[in-house]
Amino acid sequence: MRPVTFVLIALLAFVQYPLWWGMGGWLRVHDLQQQFSDQLRTNTELKARNDRIAGEVDDLQNGTAAIEERARYELGMVKNDEVFVQFVSPQDQARLPSLSSNLPSTRGQVSAAPLRVVPEPPAHGRAETKRLEAAAARHKAGAEKSRAARGATGPNADR
Fold first, then answer.
1. What is the radius of gyration, based on Cα positions, of the chain?
2. Residue ranges, Periplasmic compartment (predicted)?
3. So what's the pLDDT on residue 88?
C-alpha cells in the first residue's frame, strides 16, 4: 500500500504544479489581471489628457482668445495700450526672484530699472475710488497728449 500511496501523491503533485506555477497557472492569471487593471487606469488618464489637448488645439485653431491668454500668462506679453500692474503681499515679497538686468523685456528692450514691488493698496471708500479713477484718467490723457505732441519726431517714428 505504501508504494501506491507514494505514487498517487507524486502524481497529484505533478498535476497540481502547472495549475499553480505553470504558464497558465493561478499566480500568472493574478499577475495578468493586475497588469490589465493598471493599463486600464493608464489608458483612462491618457484619454482625458488627449481630450484636453484636442480642446486646446481646437481653441488655438478657431479663436484668438486662447492665443491671447497664452501670450499673457506664459510669455508675459501685454497690449500696446495696457499698463501691467502686479500687487504683491508683503509675505510674497521675500519669495520674489531677483531679476537680472540683462534680461530683455517682452518688447525687446532691456530695462535698467530695478524691480519695484508695489504693496497691495488698502481698501478705499467710493469717493476715494472715484478720485483715484479720475486721477488715473487725467494721467492717461496727459500721456496721450505728450505722445501726440511728439508726433513723428519720437523715437519710434520709423515704425
1. 35
2. 22-159
3. 75
Could you give the angle at which helices 26-62 and 65-73 cross, rounded to 10 degrees? 100
- Cα angle at 126 between 120 and 129, to 5 degrees? 45
pTM as predicted: 0.35
Give yes or no for a contact between 147 and 154, defined as CB atoms under 8 angstroms apart: yes
Q: What is the mean pLDDT of residues 118-122?
A: 59
Q: Are 124 and 95 in contact (CB under 8 A)?
A: no
Q: How far apart are CA 87 and CA 96, in angstroms?
A: 12
Q: Cβ(16)–Cβ(23) under 8 Å?
A: no
> How high is the pLDDT of residue 22?
73
Q: 98 Cβ partners below 8 Å, 6+ apart?
A: 115
Model confidence at 50, pLDDT cuts 50, 70, 90, reads very high
Confidence at residue 42, expressed as pLDDT on a 0 to 100 scale: 97
Q: Read off the C-alpha cell for 18.
A: 502547472
Alpha carbons 77 and 54: distance in angstroms, whole number: 25
| CA dihedral for 58, 60, 64, 66, sign (positive or negative) | positive
Smallest CA-to-CA distance from 17 within 28, 32, 31, 33 is with 28
